[in-house]
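A brief tutorial aside. Many learners find it easier to grasp structure tokens once they have seen a single protein encoded end to end. The record that follows does exactly this for Zinc ribbon domain-containing protein. Read the sequence first, then the structure, and try to relate runs of similar tokens to stretches of the chain.
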Amino acid sequence: MIEDGRVIAQAPIKDLQTCRHCRTANAPSARFCLNCGTPLSSGCTACGSSLTAGAKFCSQCGQATH
């Protein structure tokens, strides 16, 4: 990506986080959507592990996220 005349490294599409509210693609390290401000990750209610936005199950304990 080119921004202000500089080449900016861009994450591979598969690594981007998609906002569950507005569907905007965000950097893998983003904590909030750059378009609407919605939090992109949260903690598992069962074990406290960090959850990636859109995850249906916790990757650590298998708890359903919804």
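Self-check: The chain has no helices and six strands. If you spotted this yourself, you are ready for the next section.
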